[in-house]
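Supplementary notes for students who missed Thursday's class. We covered one full example, reproduced here. Read the sequence, then the structure, then the short commentary at the end.
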Amino acid sequence: MDYRRFGKTIVMRIDRGEEILTQMKAMAIREDIKLASVRALGAVDDFTVGVFKPAEKKYYANRFTGDFEIVSLTGTINTMDGEYYAHLHMSAGDEQGRVFGGHLNQAIVSATCEMVVEVIDGQVERVRDEELGLNLFRFL
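Structure (token representation):
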């Protein structure tokens, strides 16, 4: 992984064999990011995404392996209990154009991942909503 900061924008390259969420977290902690918007594209060969079922207050994970292009990776970096927290969704397409996606749990880069992180002045904390079973934004 390598990255450069240009004002409030961070441009990042995540390399083959690296896990996207792990590398993003390392960069965000190093840069002391409290609030940001994230977007990326690239290629992965092993990823897990989930779907939340509100009635059960539970995520169900789906794992995919093979050659996939990231068609969309978007989300936020913020904090929960004052610590790093990220919420990302990813969609990736296979060689037949089928696209799979959901809440990103893990993704291993097969070639490269190009990420842009837009740092936002301010802080938005996450707080657990027991009724929904989710960690929601709480504006400070």
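Commentary. The mean pLDDT is 97. The CA atoms of residues 29 and 84 lie 7 Å apart. If anything here is unclear, bring it to office hours.
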